């Protein structure tokens, strides 16, 4: 049996190494994972109670329309309920966007180094991925606008960008949107938006009110700490959301995920505390990198990409032997860099101590 031709060349997504696997392989008792941009502080304490309450309903299908959660998120954001769609993580909303709007021969514009699921899902649908090089680690919006043609159906902007952590400002996004034709959907993937503290982050809700072709993606996997439950959502014009809903699988989010997300979004004090701790951790790592003579991209999420001036694989493995899992840039198109999740203060300090040791062992590339 032969699969369809559009998927034969596609790589299988490689997540960060699991903690238990590293313990088993290296005989370690303590392992710190700073590879998958998870929240080191977990989730709101109200989440556990919400999940426990749902156990009594384990034999029942979930609400296919996620009505209660939709109402809560809509109220939180100040949008209408028909402007929201939920998925098994924002990953599934990306899949649904590609399925709903792309046909073979269409074009889709994205950055050269960004979240790989954009290209992955576009190519499954037979669309052509137009990859525009980053500029200083950031989306080059002028070049991306110039790459749009009559065949361009979707433009993907990951903001803050994964893996570099860089951000396009409100002014930059507005200038870009003014150049985009109405037939082209612009996806603002804002998985890390809740971490932003600059005051210059785009107001995507305002933009959605102005542009029918703009959709924002959000997730409960990052600052809300619900990564294992797989729930995210898209915000857009009702007509666009209706089209995406037409390809959504029934019951695509679970009762547990919906209940947990509802509890999580109603605890904004927890979110504020996570944002504050993340900012402190980010500032600490940036200062430590400077002291080590290393350059890092300006970071606006809960991770940072640093150039270690050495083969990333060697530094990655050196850290791994010390019980620190990070994301090696050799897997992301940055052969001398690491992407590191911001951890707790204790985890960050242990990472810097281990990194200092590894840098002393691995020679600098000439």
UniProtKB/TrEMBL annotation:
Pfam families: Aminotran_1_2 (PF00155). Gene3D superfamilies: Aspartate Aminotransferase, domain 1, Type I PLP-dependent aspartate aminotransferase-like (Major domain). Its EC number is 2.6.1.9. SUPFAM superfamilies: PLP-dependent transferases (SSF53383). Transmembrane segments: none annotated. Pathway: Amino-acid biosynthesis; L-histidine biosynthesis; L-histidine from 5-phospho-alpha-D-ribose 1-diphosphate: step 7/9. It catalyses: L-histidinol phosphate + 2-oxoglutarate = 3-(imidazol-4-yl)-2-oxopropyl phosphate + L-glutamate. It comes from the Bacteria. The modification N6-(pyridoxal phosphate)lysine is found at residue 222. Its cofactor is pyridoxal 5'-phosphate. Keywords: Amino-acid biosynthesis, Aminotransferase, Histidine biosynthesis, Pyridoxal phosphate, Transferase. The keyword NADP does not apply. GO terms for molecular function: histidinol-phosphate transaminase activity. Residues 30-355 form the Aminotransferase class I/classII large domain. Belongs to the class-II pyridoxal-phosphate-dependent aminotransferase family. Histidinol-phosphate aminotransferase subfamily. Homodimer. This is Histidinol-phosphate aminotransferase. It comes from Paenibacillus allorhizoplanae. The lineage of its organism: Bacteria, Bacillati, Bacillota, Bacilli, Bacillales.
């Amino acid at each position: 049996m032969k699969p369809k031709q559009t998927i034969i060349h596609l790589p299988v997504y490689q997540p960060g190494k699991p903690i238990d696997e590293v313990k088993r392989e290296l005989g370690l008792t303590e392992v710190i994972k700073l590879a998958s941009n998870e929240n080191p502080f977990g989730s709101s304490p109200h989440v556990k109670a919400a999940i426990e309450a749902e156990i009594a309903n384990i034999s029942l299908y979930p609400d296919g329309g996620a009505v209660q959660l939709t109402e809560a998120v809509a109220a939180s954001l100040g949008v209408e309920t028909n402007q929201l769609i939920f998925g098994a993580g924002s990953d599934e909303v990306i899949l649904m966007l590609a399925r709903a709007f792309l046909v073979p021969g269409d074009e889709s514009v994205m950055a050269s180094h960004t979240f790989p699921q954009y290209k992955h899902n576009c190519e499954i649908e037979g669309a052509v991925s137009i990859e525009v090089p980053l500029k200083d680690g950031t989306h080059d919006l002028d070049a991306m606008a110039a790459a749009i043609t009559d065949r361009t159906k979707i433009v993907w902007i990951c903001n803050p960008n994964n893996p570099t952590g860089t951000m396009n400002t409100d002014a930059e996004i507005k200038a870009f949107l003014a150049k985009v034709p109405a037939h082209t959907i612009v996806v603002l993937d804002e998985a890390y938006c809740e971490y932003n503290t600059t005051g210059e982050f785009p107001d995507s809700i305002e933009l959605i009110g102005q542009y029918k072709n703009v959709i924002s993606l959000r997730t409960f996997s990052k600052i809300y700490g619900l990564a294992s439950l797989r729930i995210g959502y898209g915000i857009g014009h009702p007509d666009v959301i209706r089209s995406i809903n037409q390809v959504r699988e029934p019951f695509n989010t679970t009762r547990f995920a919906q209940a947990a997300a509802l509890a999580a979004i109603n605890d904004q004090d927890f979110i504020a505390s996570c944002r504050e701790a993340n900012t402190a951790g980010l500032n600490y790592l940036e200062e430590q990198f400077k002291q080590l003579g290393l350059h890092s991209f300006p970071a606006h999420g809960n991770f940072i990409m640093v150039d270690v001036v050495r083969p990333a694989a060697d530094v990655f493995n050196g850290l791994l032997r010390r019980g620190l899992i990070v994301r090696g840039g050799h897997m992301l198109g940055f052969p001398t860099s690491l992407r590191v999740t911001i951890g707790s203060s204790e985890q960050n300090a242990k990472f810097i101590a281990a990194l200092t040791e590894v840098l002393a062992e691995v020679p600098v590339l000439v």
